[in-house]
Amino acid sequence: MENTNSGVSFLKKYQTILLAALVFAVAFLVYANTINYKLTDLDDENFIHNYAYKYQPASAFSEAFKQNVLFGGPTPYYRPVLSLSFVTSYKIAGQSESFAHFVNVLLHALCALLLFVFLRHYLFDDKISFLAAALFALHPLTIYTAAWIPGRNDSLFFINFILAFTFFIEYLNTKKFGFILLNALFTLLCFFTKESGLAVAFIFIFYYITHFKKYGKLDLKKSAICIALWIITMSIFWIARKAAMGPAGVQGLNLRPDNIRMFFDYYASAIFMTTPFRALYGTIEPYFYPLGIFAAGLTVFFAFFKKNKEQKYENFFWLTLPLIMLAPNLIGERLWFQGNRMYVPLFAIIILFFSFLQPYLKTKKTAAQTVIAVIFVIAVIGTLNGSAGFKNSLTFWNKMINESAYEHITAKKFRVTAYIKNGDTQTAAKEALYIAQISRFSDPEIMYLLGLAFLQNGNYKEAIQVYEMLISNGQMLIPPTYASLVLAYSYENNKQKAEYYFGELVKTLNASPNDALGYLQSYKAYLQSQKGQALRK
């Protein structure tokens, strides 16, 4: 009996710590299988392999603040914190895809842990905080961030956001200067993680306005300090960004139907726990208007049902927070979720849900627990099934295309590449030819892939015809095109043409013949590694 009592006493004493550890474990385990996944070829190839050579110098850490996120590659994004994460991963494990996935899962688990601590400290008791953090950890909306390697920008952002938020609340509680300094530091890191972080300072101001009665009035001096520090952090970000990227362009609103539908798709996915693969290329079915409106309406119900005036003010903040973070989805020409702006809106929606459910966990405990159990089962099934779509490039693009309402050529280009990489070069050639035909053979990228599929299949004459047509049109004048022609003519035993295109390869590489030969051998080895049978001679 004494042992039993001491065990119960131990659990009560360390309940918060044990629940925190359990949240971390749940978040890690639900995505543990993704550690052995491959790449999707949607940006992750760039971060892990294509630009990895830029991570080698010791100066790579400082260069992360002087370059765009691809260290000078073709992208408009300036995200030094994301860049630093890939530099650090490279220094530890090189170009390991498994380690990159491991880091993503670890960051996701850390997000869930920090969420538990935040909820336990400011909003709920141990048990409700655990349930809320566990639902966050298991929710299918986290798939893009946890299972897709470049999606870690959202987990990195959430970590910095929740720490900045915590230190801001502590400043409101204690008025200690050190807390607002820490808030400014992590707010700056939010800016350096992704551009939508510029909304963070305004979120804190809005939080204070909606929670005014709880914290009381800040005197003029303390208010001025907060605002001055946020202005300084914004200035530091803009100066650094301008130095690295040049002046930022201004994008206007783009209220295309698909952009607006994606906005509602988020709410539908958050409430009904689906995975918005369909959002990747702006191909959202029209029925997501009413479904999304209904889901958004539920969040309003959660926020205000049977709440007193002060609670309504406070919940108005959590109701508005997703709108603030999702608003950038109405700017620009293409708005893919892909891990962007997923965690913070989900964080707010989960808070609204459990603020609604909290009294029923006391008055109608069995019914409330049954609802939560069903929700958790649905979440786990959705997350495991959805994350399986990231297993490799072929499963990813098959899932994305199959769940899209419309045919999208760019997505099919990616799938052709995936077929080639997975050794199904016959299917690759068939699909590439179909896309080439409907684009009237005018798309150089798909023509290049068609030539590559022919080459891998051993259809050397067809490959030569495609590549020479590209060259005659002044398209795809890149080393792989000339290297492919050298290989194709070599297999056709046309030494004269092979030597001619080898000379063109030397010119394109601006290298010596020996270096060009090394490139050619590496290129051939690369093609052979893609399971194509024709080049195994």
What does this structure look like?
With 537 residues, the protein is mainly alpha-helical. The chain has two domains: 19-390, no CATH class; 407-536, Tetratricopeptide repeat domain (Serine Threonine Protein Phosphatase 5, Tetratricopeptide repeat), CATH 1.25.40.10. Helix content is 71%, strand content 0%. The chain has 27 helices and no strands. Helix 21 (409-421) packs parallel to helix 23.
Please describe the structure with a list of short key phrases separated by commas or semicolons:
transmembrane helix; TPR repeat; elongated; 0% strand; 27 helices; TPR_rpt; TMTC_O-mannosyltransferase; mainly alpha; Serine Threonine Protein Phosphatase 5, Tetratricopeptide repeat; mannosyltransferase activity; 537 residues
Question: Short description, anyone?
Answer:
The chain is mainly alpha-helical and 537 residues long. The chain has two domains: 19-390, no CATH class; 407-536, Serine Threonine Protein Phosphatase 5, Tetratricopeptide repeat (Alpha Horseshoe), CATH 1.25.40.
